[in-house]
């Protein structure tokens, strides 16, 4: 039986990068540019360095992050990412400056958040009346504390009984520990959960390997629609509760 529903966050609860037009409207740098500028500014407070050198070190650290993330299923924390950049430059920052860089980097998507996807609040309210709900999501750059705040600010956090964020769990999807953590928090077996997300490898095949049901959500990203093995494909929150109920009935 399906007793709990787990949700990816990026492009499932919120529309990833929908914050970029908001930044542009305020005359701000893109997130990619601002992250590099934060590190560069802090380094210059200690010893002058050119932005091009910082950009190169940041790019190398990002490439390393992606290998570790996608091949080892480990999501570096913001602190680890900044340390990788500094190591590449052979530089250090005083603790106060380092902590400021980490906070400013991690707070960017909290201060100017991506949009919640249309209909998500109504669907969560509906589902929370019948199932335990839990977030299972990679943190990427914004830590779990910040992601909770984004959910709180959209009045969505109230519907979730648990949160498995990769920077807190120590692994990223589709590693089993992410789903084990969710199951433990909501008090069910892993195979009694159904997962919803936008990426076939992480959000469909990962849960399937654990005996879970999985729905591909395509409201903002449908790149995997043509080759997914999902139990269902849903492109609107208006259709999600009925689809889950149908799968739950079939699993009885």
Automatic annotation (TrEMBL):
Task: State the InterPro entries in the record.
Answer: HAD-like_hydrolase, HAD-like_sf, HAD-SF_hydro_IA, HAD_sf
Q: Does the keyword Hydrolase apply?
A: yes
Its EC number(s): 3.1.3.-
Is Hydrolase one of the keywords? yes
Its needed co-factors are: Mg(2+)
Name the Pfam families on file: Hydrolase (PF00702)
Q: Which UniProt keywords apply?
A: Hydrolase, Magnesium
Q: Which SUPFAM superfamilies match?
A: HAD-like
**The protein, known as:** HAD family hydrolase
């Amino acid at each position: 039986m399906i007793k709990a529903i787990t949700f990816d966050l990026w492009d499932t609860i919120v529309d990833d990068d929908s914050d970029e037009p908001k930044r542009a409207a305020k005359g701000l740098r893109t997130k990619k540019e601002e992250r590099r500028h934060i590190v560069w500014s802090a380094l210059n407070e200690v010893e002058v360095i050119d932005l091009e050198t910082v950009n190169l070190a940041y790019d190398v650290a990002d490439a390393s992050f992606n290998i570790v993330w996608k091949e080892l299923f480990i999501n570096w924390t913001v602190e680890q990412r900044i340390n990788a950049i500094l190591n590449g430059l052979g530089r250090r920052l005083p603790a106060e400056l380092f902590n400021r860089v980490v906070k400013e980097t991690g707070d960017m998507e909290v201060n100017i958040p991506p949009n919640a996807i249309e209909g998500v609040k109504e669907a969560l309210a509906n589902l929370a009346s019948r199932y335990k709900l839990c977030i299972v999501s990679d943190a990427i750059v914004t830590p779990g504390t910040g992601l909770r705040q984004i959910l709180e600010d959209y009045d969505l956090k109230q519907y979730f009984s648990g949160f498995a964020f990769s920077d807190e769990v120590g692994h990223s999807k589709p590693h089993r520990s992410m789903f084990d953590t969710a199951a433990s928090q909501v008090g069910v077996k892993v195979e009694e959960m159904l997962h919803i997300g936008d990426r076939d490898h992480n959000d469909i095949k990962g849960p399937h390997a654990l005996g879970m049901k999985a729905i591909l959500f395509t409201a903002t990203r449908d790149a995997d629609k043509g080759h997914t093995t999902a139990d269902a494909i849903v492109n609107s929150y208006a259709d999600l509760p009925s689809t889950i109920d149908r799968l739950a009935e079939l699993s009885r």
